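batch job 7 of whatever, protein = RING-type domain-containing protein
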Amino acid sequence: MKICGACERDLPDGSYSEEQRARRQSIRRCEECVTAGNQLVLMKKGRTRSEKDDCPICQLPLQLDVKRSVFNPCCMKRMCNGCVFAARKRGMWDCPFCRAPTPDEEQVLTMIRKRVAAGDPVATWNLGAQYFLGEYGLEKDVARAIELYERAAELGLKEAHFNLGVLYVNGAEVEKDMAKAFLHYEAAAMCGHVSVRFNLGTMECNEGNYDLALQHMMISAKLGHDSSLSFVKAAFMDGLATKADYAAALRGYQSAIEEMSSPDRAEAKTLGFVM
């Protein structure tokens, strides 16, 4: 018995073609779903960004480049450079969102650990990152970082799934495990993580699964991911995507970029304001 990644039914092996039987569950489709053109659950979910990806001040989607936003541990919020820049222009040097004074390293750790104890997934993930990087006076501890990442992932945090996926793909700090990498990447993708869609598309392309690669890239391109749009364009030039595919990706990309734009963000970028 194998589970179909489209209808999610547990079906006997005879319900799948030889090609589909060899695929992992998330991208396996039974013959009925293939005939009906039923889409994989992996491709149905995560096609839009969550409200959690919005700047808590201006309520616009955060830019995908993390250098264009800043994470403040006092409130566990990531806010765009535009809003931080606007606050600085008004002489505000505390947190633009919660107004808390800038804490020192010891205070930051206290804040984070208090939230971790309360079960905050963002704080748990953040503490894992500090252990992984050896920051805030902590000794680098990859095992502890993974433990915290896994706890945050269990709580549904897509960033934790992404970090775990990267670790298992690279195989530098932990033993390389592509099965685990796919598992975490797919979980992150279905939660709306944009960059991981590009990673999945690249991995599927490397496996020769060009149709799946294009589907991933179409989703992330429409969410404003530069490299994904470039992939779709190249696929179109190589005859692996249609003109309609590229046109749809381009329209979605332009719309996403517009949604992530504001006068404050533009001014901050022009003046080279980076936190």
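notes: Residues 1-44 form one domain.
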